[in-house]
Amino acid sequence: MAPARLLIQNNMTLTAWVNGRFLPLAQATVHIEDRGFQFADGIYEVIACFGGVFLDLPAHLSRLQYSLDALQIPLPLPFPALTALLHEAYRRNPFDHAMLYIQITRGVAPRSHRIEQPLTPTMVITVRELPEPSEQQLAQGASAITRADIRWQRCDIKSIALLANVLGKQQAVQAGVDECFWRDDQDYMLEGCSSNALAVINGVLVTHPLGHQLLGGIARQMTLRLAARHAIACEERAWRLDETGLSECMMSSTTEAVMPVCHIDGQAIGNGKPGPISMMLRQWMLDEFSALRQQKEQS
Ligand code: PDD
Q: Ligand 1, atom 4: nearest CA belongs to which residue?
């Protein structure tokens, strides 16, 4: 992937969508009685866009619908209109490689745990530059700590209630590492605060099965798909860090693609360097992004 490029310099005002209109980011505000603010009563998506091509948009939209259904919040716009809006939000902001953030909350109402119906959902879209690791970060790989999972029991919903994830990430930052992976009560690895966790064990790509304990990451799914396409055996099963034959760990997310994780809880994974399978998966994923972009340019 070419380095993320700013199409226009940073002093260009960023534009956000808020409740029916585009506004300069600084003026894009929501009501203090929005239930997202009061109760974290909402959901979100983060979607990568390369030169105007959205990565796996149908998968993101279907997860968005899944999260909304779980909270019984109506979809504010049909998918074709939402898709058009995402394209327009991308177009109005200065990033070539961008991440689009969509947040939908239940709406505004006087504070009460009881849900008054019908409410008009609040919808916000912001666009930021997609981060890119430096050569040095890639050469070293990422590092992580693990912690016992303190989150709720519906981590499959992409809820905006992310306090535990924020606290976990902050512990990672304070420990000088990149991610905090959650472990269940038997020390099985679930996922990170903003990524899924995968490992290579005896040559097999292993990741925790989907369920209420983790988010069904779009990059996780893509990683499994790419591995299968290249004849790497995959297994969705609970796994632990102390398993014999564990040679690589990695994390996957929309914002970081596949990233090797070479130190966990201060211990080197394998030889402490990015492993061959992680690096191949990362490259295949980046190749996939480039291919998508080329298809668009040629069409
Ligand atoms: N987070 N697990 C958690 C808890 C996450 O927050 C994320 C992504 C993932 C990976 O999902 P995906 O591959 O669909 O990005 C897994 C986003 C990037 C965020 O909160 O910013």
A: 194
Residue 214 contacts by C-beta under 8 Å, 6 or more apart in sequence?
155, 156, 190, 191, 196, 208
**pLDDT digit string (tens) for the chain, length 299 residues:** 334 444 444 546 899 999 899 999 999 999 999 999 999 999 999 999 999 999 999 999 999 999 999 999 999 999 999 999 999 999 999 999 999 999 999 999 999 999 988 899 999 999 999 999 999 999 999 999 999 999 999 999 999 999 999 999 999 999 999 999 999 999 999 999 999 999 999 999 999 999 999 999 999 999 999 999 999 999 999 999 999 999 999 999 999 999 999 999 999 999 999 999 999 999 999 999 898 888 878 87
Residue 135 Cα distances to 78, 141, 142, 287, angstroms? 41, 10, 12, 17
- Give the residue numbers marked as catalytic: 158
Residue 253 in contact with ligand 1 by CB distance below 6 A: yes
CB 196 near ligand 1, within 6 Å? yes
Atom number in ligand 1 closest to CA 59: 14
Domains and CATH numbers, the chain: 3-129 (3.30.470.10), 135-289 (3.20.10.10)
